[in-house]
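Chapter review. Work through the record for tRNA (guanine(46)-N(7))-methyltransferase before attempting the end-of-chapter questions.
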Amino acid sequence: METEERTLQLPQKRYYRQRAHSNPIADHSVEYPPSPNDMDWSPLYPELKDPTCEKKVEFVDVGCGYGGLLVTLSPMFPSTLILGLEIRVKVSDYVIDRVAALRSQNKGQYENIACIRTNAMKYLPNYFRKAQVRRCFANCILNSQYENIACIRTNAMKYLPNYFRKAQAL
Ligand SMILES: C[S@@+](CC[C@H](N)C(=O)[O-])C[C@H]1O[C@@H](n2cnc3c(N)ncnc32)[C@H](O)[C@@H]1O
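Structure tokens for tRNA (guanine(46)-N(7))-methyltransferase:
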């Protein structure tokens, strides 16, 4: 008998609810790389399992919440690796499970998005090299440490296509 690969179901938000705020100054038990050179991205993006692939994460959604923007961006920029950072553990778990389910239901798609639980205010420089990140979507929780990052106020979920062409070279 043939064994069928089980398709993962999309997670239900009600099982991943958490208080709206998590203190970014508090000491959370977060695993983070000592420096960008120590970060192994291959478990997050299937493409990077090939050791000859030199792609890097170029878009970052800081405070990605339940991952709506990641999911919107994924088909718009299919060849760009996009990362969501989220401090709340249950919320980041939701995004991780959501991406796994989307990948399993749509073969070959959503492989360019991933999420990690971290405190972006403390550890952002541990993940990314200088000039690595081309676009950073943030809820303005950051003091920009990078000169190539700018911020505009918009509802990205609604208006993102108004700013960028599909797969625009930025
Ligand atoms: C206003 S919500 C926005 C969620 C999402 N970007 C959206 O537009 O629906 C801000 C999110 O940032 C997360 N957050 C706040 N401080 C953070 C930090 N220091 N590092 C990572 N995530 C953080 C919160 O847990 C929350 O989910």
